[in-house]
Design brief:
Aminopeptidase, 3 domains, Immunoglobulin-like, single chain, alpha+beta, 418 residues, 9 helices, binds zinc ion
Amino acid sequence: MSSSISTCCNLQRRIAVCGIIAVVLTLAMSACGMGGSSPGGLEYVNTSIENGCPLYWETDSAGVVNIYLVYDQERSSPNRANGHWHFQLQASKAADLTIVLHNFDNVWNGKMGSPINDRTICFVSEDGKRWQVLATEKIEGNRLRVRAQMRRESLYLARLEPYRVSDLERLKQEIRGHRLVEISHIGHTVEGRELEMIRIGQADAPGRVLLRARAHPWESGGNWVVQGLIRRLLRDDEDSRRYLARYCVYVMPMANKDGVVRGWTRFNMLGKDLNRNWDEPADPCLAPENFALESWLQAMAAKGKRPHLMIDLHNDDGGKLHVSRPGIDLDEYLQRMEALEGLLRKWTWFTEGSTGSNYRNPGTIGEGLLERYGMIACVLELNANWIAGLKDYPCGKNWELFGEQLCEVFFHYFESNH
Ligand SMILES: [Zn+2]
């Protein structure tokens, strides 16, 4: 008897405790905007999309959506990077959302740096195909505020107009089998994805250009540029025949394919920066993406077909041609870089100019290939916020135009140099 009373009392006590916990949880959840729809109308932040970035999120009591980006980190280094974002907001129709992006305390070359400023832009799209520019606001705490109005129940946000692996596959599908195209597999990424080299034009053309895009996954600009260039060269008109009589172009279109798939910002899956360590032979285990390119370069050199010019395409907020100056005889190199800059200014929308006479960035591909192979190689940064020469934002279309214009640059580059 007494035991059953005590059991009953215990039960009542447990029910009471559970009730209190439930009330506390409900209060806590509503304070965090969890449970039911949030005060601002957000239902979910979906990152299960191609090139979606790692993040976690929470909505505060005022309905502000706080998005915490997750850094990718460099191996054996304090360096870490966030600069890419790409996710889908799912919310009630007509909601006015305020989104605050966090975690831009990057470490770059061992120093703190921020990838955002007052000019940083953001792209939005309802269907993931047509993108528009949205202004952002840098606020205290090195955070970025974006206001988005929902017209449908979902909206994509991205740092730059995305260029995904599926976009590259579509391009390959479009050009495969063309008599002027050769697509070869030159190696694999850390996660086993195939890396390709695309040749446009005849292998025995007098001039050879090598372009690499997407060493850093957030920088989609290079992919749009090479797409514009490839399509222009294959247009089969008088100009394209004139170009391809003088040169052929080799394109490594997506060096850090794993990073693009996973929505990372800078490093490969083993924490290597694919635009560093070019002052020594590439590590086949830690940086197989670079090892693939270097092996290809060596095979080309063995055939007497080393590229005459190599440009590595990047994005930043300066948009300059990076002319790195290692301690070797630079006369010919500087002459050719000057010629290249002049041609870029003349034939494309490029106006940003080159880095100064003291500029060095050791280990970058431009400097490494110049120092170790005597190649005319450089890094071209494309401004990720504004194209001064067009007075317009850098969208995929404007970068494709730059790629088209590069065809004329190379035509004249080989006229004056070879
Ligand atoms: Zn870069």
